[in-house]
């Protein structure tokens, strides 16, 4: 009889600790199919490791993700540095777990300021239309404003618009709907064959980070999550989408200090100026 | 019912079954044909809609090509993009994208999913839908592009792809006679469905794709969009949940239910494995749905997928929807016919059974029965009639009844018009007679009792039913009865028949003669009231009634009283008469006046007593001699002893010892004499004649004590073989018989001169009988007289020696007093190696006699 009680206790503790499912919020910048393609490998891996189902919560904007995260509707999220810092400033239960490496094995990326191959330099233009991703996108207003400021160009003298996604920024520049655009360097590279030209490139920015919600997940799960991500082997990684298949590193929160300073010195408008 | 009739019913049932099954098969085939027609119509309709849609978009894309792509500017940009220096290629490609992007947007609005340029080497050049994907070799994946480039012809076909499947229109492109490659304008499956819906919006449509064709082509990242089809596991469905904007609507619940049924349709699975079109009716919740599957062939004629339509069915052939009712009606009809046949068979059996019942009644009649028509022609005759008349039914039926057996010499060969039976029936509708005679087939005239009745069959025709009985036996019985009655009435014995309460029901005149009472006086009354003498005790009558009421006859003698008051002896035998249930219904008493017989018996008894006395007297005379013999020796012994003592005394030589010896001898002899006297006294003691238990050997010793003296004198050897036994009987009488037999033996043995004289006494017994054999060796009794030796007064001795009543009395004693048997026969036997012949008397007495 006591054996049965022990078994029941073991199972009951398991049930108490386990969460029915973990809600994962990926990037809001790409379409559902791409998102699914990109994260399915990672999700399956974590589901297996945590023995918990992971569901994807698709969102159209970082704002939506941050809001849901604070409300406890999202357990883990894959965020760029700016949304991470924004969330950090609003929500103390955010736990940075790991940063994703890029192709070069680094946990940082860069943003590019681009134009079509045949477009004149911005310095030669009095007013140009600039395509930006999102207010909370690192490669958006923050980056473009900083780059232009360095060449003594005031972004506010030009017209800018938030298009939401990096690929939209690239295509809108190719289609000559905008003369310039700011987007992630790695995405911009994909559109070079269509005449997209890189004009400026940013300082390294901490790569995408996987964060956990300490309000909805207990410490053990969070620890388990981090360890699972850090202990992943190359064979498993090979099955993941290319963009996240280069491994992870434990997040170094100090790497965000430069960006924190930049954010603090920049007031990012939430809407375009035309 | 005959077995032939039964066979006919069986054949008819079998015929009904075969017909019913044929009807079912015909119905099934008819339904199959109608269903096929129905499906063919649906398939045709579906094919028309599908092909019309394909054609519509082929024409549309051709127009787009001619209007917007096959232009100088576009082709020039394409050419430059393909052929310029590497650093300039992005510029022209970008410009091409920029130029055609508005067109792409317009095409998207029209449902066009992809605008895709390829190089002439089948490499992807520019995908408007996925601009970052380019440069991949499509030679082995996209047959449409390969064929279009190689054969420079327009290809319109459904084709699965690396990202998503679609309806491809691939156009080869050339500029100034230089092949530039090709351009593909693809239509999504969603738009194809919408196009078909525009033509026929009554149903729901979906696509499934050949798993073996689509899966190897897919980018790995696209595999998640495909799931195994619910209809066939060799096919997949694309974006089942319609998560992509270009995907067709997700299937309705109804279509999903239908798919479940299709999955178990083996015929469908076979058709799909062969790439055939297929139509089927599916019933869901009492509604019928037409499902049509049309194969979509790729350029290489491989099955790339199936277009499926689900429509609520209308104009379904009645036979299809009502199939089960047709079957039920056919089966019901069949069952009804079989039931009717069975009912008819049952009724026929009942009728047949009834007919057989009537037949058995008529056959079982003790009377002959025949039916004749208005012309006296017999149309039915029962077996008894045949038997009485001596004909077979075939010999009678169809013949004229009167002429056949009612016209004969007994009635002066009467003609039919004078026939009393026929005429009597016609006149009075019925006729009865016990004075008719019928002529049998062997020429005998038999008396018959006839009853005829007229039966009208219809207004004009009638039949005469005649039953008749051969009353020959009845007449004979009546005669016998009369004889019996006469005999009883003539009997000198009085016969009285009473009921169970002893009231007289019938009595013969002898009763009157015997008792003096008139028959009328005692009729219906108990005769005891008239003739009882009061001489019998109540126990006597009680015993009598107990016997007869236990259904046993009672026989006894009693004294009754005549009307004039005199008594008479009567021997009465009363026998109970039982009915079929063994109940007493009557008593028959046969009385006989035995007064005279009684008197004779008394006389005989008196005579027998006389004989007995005479016999004893005779024996006494003989016994005197025996006594003399018996006494002679002891008297001599006494005399010589006394004389001896006297002489010894006189001579003074008498010693005490001699004196005592002599006195003892005298006393012993005196005792012997006393015993002898006692034996004889007992023998002659008339009071000693009573039944008692005695030892047979002792009785024989007593006998020998009486007669042995003479046997010794006559040198007769007595050989005794005696088995010890006791007997309950008359000892003294047995001794008397033995004395008689031994004396007779002694007499004949005395005549045996110079020869050994033997007398054997053998006593033995078995379970029931004591056997005493006494035989001598005197040569036996002459055969001429051996049967008369037991007659009274028969003797072979001189008148002075025998009276002739010894053996007679002995037989009387053994037979009547001791209930045994006594007989004699001559026997030849061997004794001590010598053969002897002599008379052997056998006395057999039952052992079970009880002491009274």
Quick summary of this structure?
The complex is a heterodimer of chains A (274) and B (852). With 274 residues, chain A is α/β, with parallel strands linked by helices.
Describe the structure.
The complex is a heterodimer of chains A (274) and B (852). With 274 residues, chain A is α/β, with parallel strands linked by helices. In chain A, the strands form three sheets. A six-stranded mixed beta sheet of chain A has the order 2-1-3-12-4-13, sandwiched between helices. Chain A has helices at 2-17, 32-50, 62-71, 81-90, 138-150, 166-174, 185-190, 219-230, 234-237, 257-265, and strands at residues 21-25, 53-56, 76-79, 94-100, 108-109, 111-116, 129-132, 159-162, 180-184, 196-201, 205-206, 209-213, 248-250. Chain A starts with a helix and ends in a 9-residue tail after the last helix. Chain A contains ten helices and 13 strands. Chain B has 852 residues and is α+β, with helices and mostly antiparallel strands. Chain B is 46% helix and 26% strand. In chain B, the strands form six sheets. Chain B has a six-stranded antiparallel beta sheet with strand order 7-8-6-11-10-9, with helices on both faces. Chain B has a five-stranded antiparallel beta sheet with strand order 2-1-5-4-3, sandwiched between helices. In chain B, helix 20 (595-650) runs antiparallel to helix 21 (656-684). The longest helix of chain B is centred in the N-terminal third of the chain and has 67 residues, at 3-69. Chain B is elongated and about 215 Å long. The model of chain B has no long low-confidence stretch (mean pLDDT 86). The interface between A and B is medium-sized, with 22 and 20 residues.
